[in-house]
Specification:
Elements: H1 5-15, H2 24-37, H3 41-45, H4 54-59, H5 62-86, H6 99-111, H7 126-165, E1 174-177, H8 183-196, H9 204-210, E2 216-222, H10 226-236, H11 240-243, E3 247-253
Parallel strand pairs: 1-2, 2-3
Helix pairs in contact: 5-6, 5-7, 6-7
């Protein structure tokens, strides 16, 4: 009796024993694919994403600080404008209670604390003087804080420019690479060598380290801060100029194993 091809395939499928060629790696892939099929898509839609909180956005970012400063300043100016506009008209004051005059007075009191001195004490009511005094103090505090922030930005920019563009112009000098616990001893030996090189009759050392016989110069290139290296040198050798008057030392912060540090 002849069987159909489909019956033969079905019989082979049921008779063929399972092989052991399935590797653990393929099993893991099959398990992972099975798990991924059952994951709810809503979980992906509602998963949490890292983002700023209101506090970190407000005080931790430059955009947040600028926005907070603008919000505070506009709120105070608007508040004084509305307060002065709602107060009764002051006959002896230079500013009436119209909306335009109130806004101009609020701007002056907030950003120029001396504006309230134009209000004479005899012609203004206690409410006018209280409003001007309170918002004048608030404006003074805001301006001081704003100036402090601007000064901090300028200081950071100056420090960044100094670190980026600080350059030492030197010729026929000695370069000390790295700053370690033995650098101070090396500087002492180099300074003494440069100082005594004037006594060298052959002038070999002098020509090597001082060219045509000018004063010796030592440049230290280390990863420590420039101020810290100079401070340690001054503390270790307080009489440097008396001991080695013709030898100078300069420090520069940089990486001694990078070529860019030598071009500075």
């Amino acid at each position: 009796m002849l069987r159909s091809p489909r019956a033969l395939r079905m019989s082979v499928r049921h008779v063929t024993p399972p092989t052991s060629s399935t590797t653990p790696k393929s099993k893991f892939r099959a398990w992972l694919a099975n798990r991924m099929e059952h994951i709810d898509d809503v979980h992906y839609q509602n998963h949490r994403v890292s983002r700023h909180s209101f506090q970190t956005l407000l005080v931790g970012t430059k955009t947040g600080r600028i926005g907070a400063a603008l919000t505070v300043s506009c709120s105070l100016v608007l508040a004084l404008t509305l307060v002065w506009h709602m107060l009764p008209a002051c006959d002896g004051c230079e500013y009436d209670n119209t909306l335009g005059a109130s806004a101009w007075l609020a701007w002056g009191v907030f950003f120029d604390p001396g504006t309230q001195t134009n209000l004479t004490p005899d012609d203004c009511s206690i409410w006018h003087k209280t409003a001007a005094a309170v918002f004048s103090v608030a404006g003074y505090i805001f301006n001081v804080a704003l100036i402090g922030v601007i000064v901090e930005w300028i200081r950071a920019a100056v420090v960044r420019f100094k670190r980026t563009h600080n350059t030492i112009i030197a010729n026929h000098h000695v370069v000390v690479l790295g700053w370690t616990d033995k650098t101070l001893f090396l500087l002492e030996e180099l300074a003494q060598m440069l100082h005594d090189s004037r006594k060298d009759e052959a002038g070999v050392v002098e020509r090597l380290v001082r060219g045509a016989g000018g004063s010796g110069e030592i440049v230290v290139l280390g990863e420590a801060a420039q101020e810290d290296m100079m401070t340690e040198i001054r503390m270790a050798f307080p009489t440097w100029k008396e001991r080695w008057p013709r030898v100078s030392v300069e420090c520069l912060q940089g990486k001694p194993y990078e070529v860019d540090g030598f071009t500075r």
